[in-house]
Specification:
The protein is of the alpha/beta class and 192 residues long. The chain has a single domain (2-191), classed as Class I glutamine amidotransferase (GATase) domain (Rossmann fold). 27% of the residues lie in helices and 33% in strands. It has a seven-stranded mixed beta sheet. It starts with a strand and ends with a helix. 45% of the residues are buried. The structure holds glutamine. Glutamine is lined by residues 45-48, 78-79, 82, 107-108, 134-135. Its EC number is 4.3.3.6, 3.5.1.2. L-glutamine binds at residues 46-48, 107, 134-135. In the presence of PdxS, forms a dodecamer of heterodimers. Only shows activity in the heterodimer. Pathway: Cofactor biosynthesis; pyridoxal 5'-phosphate biosynthesis. Catalyzes the hydrolysis of glutamine to glutamate and ammonia as part of the biosynthesis of pyridoxal 5'-phosphate. The resulting ammonia molecule is channeled to the active site of PdxS.
Length: 192
């Protein structure tokens, strides 16, 4: 199994290490050709406005949107969730998303870098996992096509799923808990 990690900016190496620890071949994706033959894709955290601009600069925007539309399983963490959302609040000037998840996401919903925190989040179908929230977004509205898979105790939505797309506000790869990646890999294996 080959799982790509969009490698334009942000926390790429943590995802690659985590996928490899699960016995998966992880491939950094920098050019459209890198998408060929992938069984799944991770969109990492970072700065979603920067990643958005770089996808256009590197000719990756349309190929990524085609891959998503064709049903490629995609896991987006933090900025990756923002890239997958159909609608964003607090976008950088000119910022676009790839889309795919019928949700609205609020960027930087927990305040600044200093307001970053770690906590345990219960993810449907995965269990309670260790999660780092780093200038994280939250999901403020969920359309009829998407499903909530994770909420904080106060009800704020931090994980959603729609078909083969999963988006979470937090970074399981930073806290080192591989169960979400493992569930993602297993769901890919079940399709292959
Ligand atoms: N605040 C970032 C953004 O809006 C996301 C932060 C992260 O990925 N850790 O893109």
């Amino acid at each position: 199994m080959i799982v790509g990690v969009l490698a334009l900016q942000g926390g790429v190496s943590e995802h690659i290490a985590m996928l490899e620890s699960l016995g998966v071949t992880a491939r950094p994706v920098r050019r459209p050709d890198d998408l060929v033959g992938l069984d799944g894709l991770v969109l990492p955290g970072g700065e979603s406005g920067v990643i958005d601009r770089l996808t256009r600069l590197f000719g990756l925007r349309a190929p990524l949107q085609e891959a998503i539309a064709s049903g490629l399983p995609v896991l987006g963490t933090c900025a990756g969730l923002i890239l997958l959302a159909d609608r964003i609040l607090g976008a950088a000037p000119g910022q676009q998303t790839l889309g795919g998840l019928d949700v609205t996401v609020q960027r930087n919903a927990f305040g600044s870098q200093r307001d970053s925190f770690d906590t345990v989040v219960d993810v449907a179908g995965v269990g309670a996992i260790e999660a780092s929230f780093i200038r994280a977004p939250i999901v403020t509205a969920v359309g009829t096509n998407a499903q909530v898979i994770a909420q904080l105790p106060d009800g704020r939505i931090v994980g959603v799923r729609q078909g083969n797309l999963i988006g979470v506000s937090f970074h399981p790869e930073v806290s080192g808990d591989s169960r979400l990646h493992s569930a993602f890999v297993q769901s890919i294996a079940a399709r292959v």
